[in-house]
């Protein structure tokens, strides 16, 4: 049986680093192979920036940075994806980075998307269940 895919927004990792029980449960499912965690390269950018600012624990971030290629399905932003995300952003008011991250995960086949952003309440998509941590 193929593992289901879950999109992971930047806020998911912030909550994970701060010991949020739901984020920890999702991470354990990823480690156990029950779930595939899909991450957009924009999320990697945002996490690195937060670590450099000191918002995230440096050691926890460095561990993630050393293992993201192994633990997660990391997806690039393509031209086609950028155009689709622009339409989503325009139609919902979603900020550009959030629209790119979400669209990346949706196109990768995610059925769930974990975030902390209330902005995603404007997104109506029957293919992806948006779960706020």
Shape: globular
Number of strands: 5
Numbering strands along the chain, what is their spatial order in the largest sheet?
3-2-1-4-5
Low-confidence stretches: none
What portion of residues belong to β-strands? Answer: 15-25%
For the record, give the distance between the C-alpha atoms at the N and C termini, rounded to a whole number.
27 Å
**What fraction, in percent, of the residue positions are helical?**
40-55%
The arrangement of helices and strands along the chain is: EHHEHHEHHEE
Largest sheet: 5 strands, parallel
Describe the protein in words.
It is a single chain. The protein has 133 residues and is α/β, with parallel strands linked by helices. The chain contains six helices and five strands. It has helices at residues 10-17, 21-31, 41-53, 58-71, 79-92, 96-107, and strands at 4-8, 35-40, 72-75, 112-115, 129-132. The protein has a five-stranded parallel beta sheet. The chain is globular. The chain starts with a strand and ends with a strand. The model has no long low-confidence stretch (mean pLDDT 94).
What would a concise description of this structure say?
With 133 residues, this protein is of the alpha/beta class.
Task: Looking at this protein, list some descriptive labels.
5-stranded parallel beta sheet; 133 residues; 5 strands; alpha/beta
Which SSEs are present, and which pair or pack?
Blueprint: E1 4-8, H1 10-17, H2 21-31, E2 35-40, H3 41-53, H4 58-71, E3 72-75, H5 79-92, H6 96-107, E4 112-115, E5 129-132
Parallel strand pairs: 1-2, 1-4, 2-3, 4-5
């Amino acid at each position: 049986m193929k593992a289901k895919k879950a999109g992971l927004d930047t806020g998911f990792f912030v909550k994970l680093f701060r010991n949020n029980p739901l984020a920890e449960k999702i991470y354990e499912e990823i480690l156990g192979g029950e779930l595939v965690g899909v991450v957009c390269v924009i999320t990697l950018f945002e996490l690195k920036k937060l670590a450099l600012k000191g918002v995230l624990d440096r050691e926890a971030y460095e561990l993630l940075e050393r293992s993201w290629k192994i633990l997660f399905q990391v997806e690039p932003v393509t031209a086609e994806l950028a155009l689709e995300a622009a339409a989503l952003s325009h139609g919902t008011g979603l900020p550009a980075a959030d629209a790119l991250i979400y669209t990346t995960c949706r196109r990768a086949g995610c059925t769930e998307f974990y975030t902390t952003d209330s902005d995603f309440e404007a997104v109506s998509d029957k293919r992806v269940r948006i779960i706020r941590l």
